[in-house]
Design goal:
Thrombin, subunit H, Mac-2 Binding Protein, 6-stranded antiparallel barrel, 2 domains, single chain
């Protein structure tokens, strides 16, 4: 029997007989056969199609929302900046009172930019006892004297109007030699317009053609010669203090006051604070006793302006202005004349002698104008426990009688304190504290008029047409 060989997948050879003897393969011996397949590229992901119009609309909505949010953020930022602008001090300009700011270049440029005109209110001033005219330049940001070359009375009247006086009260212009301390100057333009603001009628100049600058007096305040020159308290003669007035209500004397122009009276704010209706008040000038008012004309009042910072408790800023309906006729009588407001640079304590006038009760029978010479009391002394215990503020000063027998307890509220310098009588104080005087050694207290000078001129200019 021939043997047939079979080739196995292994390495051994089996014949047919042996093949039948092998046991069948177990499941563990059966190995799966793997077939390699090549994977095809997966089909692209299918998205639901969006119409082109809806896609554009969606983009527009997103853009609109973003724009609205951006606009709201910008408005919020603008509000914050505006709030800061109006509530804080000006960083690159000047404050308009309590509201808003203007650029430095807008200050004193002849155009009102502040709501209440503060930017043009105090741009012209007089300096020292020589009445040197100075005007603020918005371009150089300093005060400058004005060259007298080409200066006329037209410019003088316009300048006085810039201070707060009316053109009709203008007195005169003069000139003085310029000094090195004057710095730069202002010169009058050749095409001067008398109806325009003086601030727009001047050009900067490094020098003056005739080496002189302008002096200016807006009202004739040279009158007045005190009658006795004695140091004690004496009755005043008619015409000796021609600026003294009596402010009355219903025929009764309420306060004293001082004429500073034919239209204006300076008095104390506490005098008029309880009754500020102009029609209730009358002003009598050129008198030494209210009994004489029966034979004197009564001047009616058009406006009463008390300082907005007046404090009834502390008496700070205790000053007021009274404007007459018709101007006083200061040319008709020597008994009625204004006193000069203190120009810039005049310090209260720089004077040598001081005089007060007030309506005082004599012999317990009648009021009569009295005069007395006083001296200035040091503020520290006046604020001591023997004085007013710290109640005297920076805008007040104290006085004492030169005569030890004089009583300062009968001073007249609103009555003036004056002094002479270089032949001119200056208004330095207004009596504000007479009711607090409890003894003959207690100092009198006066409002410091030089400290209120800017306020006075600002109100005069604001109420020029009342």
């Amino acid at each position: 029997m021939s043997n047939k060989l079979h080739v196995d997948s292994g390495l051994s050879f089996l014949d047919d007989h042996d093949k039948w003897k092998l046991s069948p393969p177990s499941i563990s011996d059966v190995r799966p056969q793997y077939i390699h397949h090549v994977m095809l590229k997966p089909p692209p992901e299918v998205h639901p199609s969006v119409p082109k119009g809806k896609d554009v609309k969606r983009r527009c909505v997103k853009f609109t929302v973003a724009a609205v949010i951006s606009l709201l953020l910008l408005l919020l930022l603008a509000g914050i900046l505006l709030g800061y602008y109006y509530s804080s001090s000006c960083m690159h300009g000047r404050q308009c009172g309590d509201v808003g700011c203007v650029w430095e270049s807008q200050w004193c440029d002849g155009v009102k930019d502040c709501p209440a005109g503060e930017d043009e209110a105090n741009c012209v001033r007089l300096q020292g006892s020589s009445f040197l005219l100075q005007i603020y330049s918005s371009r150089t940001r300093d005060w400058r004297a004005v060259c007298s070359h080409g200066w006329t009375d037209q410019q003088g009247r316009a300048s006085c109007q810039g201070i707060g006086f009316t053109r009709s009260t203008y007195f005169k212009s003069g000139q003085q030699k310029k000094t090195e301390s004057d710095g730069g100057f202002l010169a009058v333009k050749s095409d001067f317009n008398p109806e325009a603001s003086i601030l727009t009628q001047l050009d900067l100049s490094d020098s003056c053609a005739n080496d002189s600058v302008v002096t200016l007096q807006c009202t004739d305040c040279r009158g007045g010669v005190n009658s006795t020159m004695a140091s004690g308290d004496h009755m005043a003669y008619l015409g000796s203090w021609p600026w003294q007035v009596s402010l009355q209500v219903a025929g009764f004397h309420r306060c004293g006051g001082a004429i500073i122009s034919p239209h204006w009276i300076v008095t104390a704010a506490h005098c008029v604070s309880l009754d500020s209706k102009p029609r209730h008040w009358s002003v009598y000038a050129g008198t030494v006793t209210p009994l004489n008012t029966l034979f004197e004309p009564a001047y009616s009042v058009s406006s009463i302006i008390a300082h907005e910072g007046y404090d009834n408790n502390t008496r700070e800023n205790d000053i007021a202005l009274v404007r007459l309906s018709k101007p006083l006729d200061v040319t008709a009588s020597n008994n009625i004349k204004p006193v000069c407001l203190p120009n810039v640079g005049l310090n209260v304590t720089s004077f040598q002698t001081y005089w007060i006038t007030r309506f005082s009760l004599k012999d317990n029978t009648s009021l009569h104008l009295t005069e007395a010479q006083v001296s200035i009391v040091d503020t520290a002394t006046c604020n001591s426990s023997m004085g007013y215990s710290g109640k005297i503020s920076h805008d007040m000063f104290c006085t004492k009688a030169m005569d030890a027998g004089d009583s300062m307890c009968h001073t007249d509220s609103g009555g003036p304190l004056v002094s002479m310098k270089d032949g001119v009588w200056w208004l330095l104080g207004s009596d504000i504290w007479e009711e607090h005087c409890t003894g003959p050694d207690k100092p009198g207290v006066y409002q410091n008029v030089p400290s209120a000078l800017d306020w006075i001129h600002r109100q005069m200019k604001k109420h020029q047409d009342d």
